Amino acid sequence: MTIKSLLPGALGFGTAPLGNMFRAIPDEEAAATVEAAWDQGIRYFDTAPFYGAGLSELRLGDVLARHPRDEFVLSTKVGRVVLDEIEDPAARDLGEKGGLFEYGRPNKMVNDYTAAATLRSIEDSLKRLRTDRLDIVWVHDVAQDFYGDEWLAAYETARTGAFRVLQKLREEGVIKAWGLGVNRVEPLELTLDLDEPKPDAFLLAGRYTLLDHDRALQRLLPAAAAQDVDIVVGGPYSSGILAGGTHFEYQKAPAAIVDKVARIKALVERYGVGIKAAALQFSLAHPATVAAIPGATKPSRIAEDVAALGEAIPAAFWTALREEKLITDSAPIPTA
User: How many separate helices (H) and strands (E) can be counted in the chain?
Assistant: First the structure.
């Protein structure tokens, strides 16, 4: 099954912020945001144990339990097991993503991509999500940003553990699809070169955006398209900096990125285009990309995302981006 045929539309909801990413979000606000997504017609929801040590899954599950299970598509991730043991969330070693969920639950998380841990992770997620099944399972963050020089060792454990378990579960009909969910292109390129196991899709966060897309265009996206491996775009607003925020790659944006965003904003204003519309529609214009899943913590943001997807953008705007070298010449642009 292709992910494209499974997903109910081009816009889903990424629930990392519901794990108290960057700030503590009241339960009521989190629930209202999920309900707003439902009310706006969004039927694909993505989460992970990593997001606040299970907090995102718990919050998402509480709301989705009120809705018929057959009416939405649900994905979560494996690679981290949440324990009952307590630790200081602010002191966790998260590689380049230090402090990301310091406001999340204090439950200890262990990185584990083995077969046994994969099955345990799925079982735990089902309980937190209050559901009897998952549609898609992603192998989470098996890349350089979390493991540095050790990333290939983590990847190899996942290849012989999580990958094979998920392929078996898909073949048995327990899940409908599986793949990798990462912030780097290299693990995905490596996976496309494998004879087995074969993923259905990838969730790629931050690497095919208006702000950062060169590397993904070179090899990954053409190879994925050739192998019918669909790409779900995570972080289409580059951690928020393309939507009025100050973060890029989940950290304070560096000066070069701030400058590039300012140049994009100048064109957005000149052509009367919404920056969210430009970001979302750019990410979805490549034939390999099938959906984008921006995150949100306020109900109003969901309505903005839905409107951005349908906004009319003049062709002259995309031409101007190319002329100013703000998007790569080979990047497909949306057509009216």
Answer: 14, 12
Position 1 pLDDT exceeds 70: no
CA angle 148, 21, 80 (to 5 degrees): 50
Is position 46 annotated as part of the catalytic site?
A: yes
Widest CA span in the chain? 56
Which tokens belong to 261?
């965003």
Mean pLDDT score, 283-300: 95
pLDDT grade for 9, boundaries at 50, 70 and 90 = very high
- Show the CA angle centred on residue 13, arms to residues 11 and 197, nearest 5°: 85
- 140 φ, ψ to 5°? -95, 130
Task: Reply yes or no on whether 51 is catalytic.
Answer: yes
Residue 133: which of 64, 230, 42 has the closest Cα? 64
The catalytic residue among 44, 77, 124, 230 is 77
pLDDT recorded at residue 100: 82
- Tell whether omega for the bond before 294 is within 30 degrees of 0, i.e. cis: no
Query: From CA 246, how far away is CA 252, in angstroms rounded?
Result: 6
- Out of 4, 39, 44, 51, the active site residue is 51
Q: Are 51 and 105 in contact (CB under 8 A)?
A: no
Question: By 3-state DSSP, what share of the chain in percent is helix, strand and coil, each rounded to 5?
Answer: 45, 15, 40
Catalytic one of 44, 46, 113, 135: 46
Tens digits of residue pLDDT in 191-200: 999 999 999 9
**Better-scored residue on pLDDT, 29 or 251:** 29
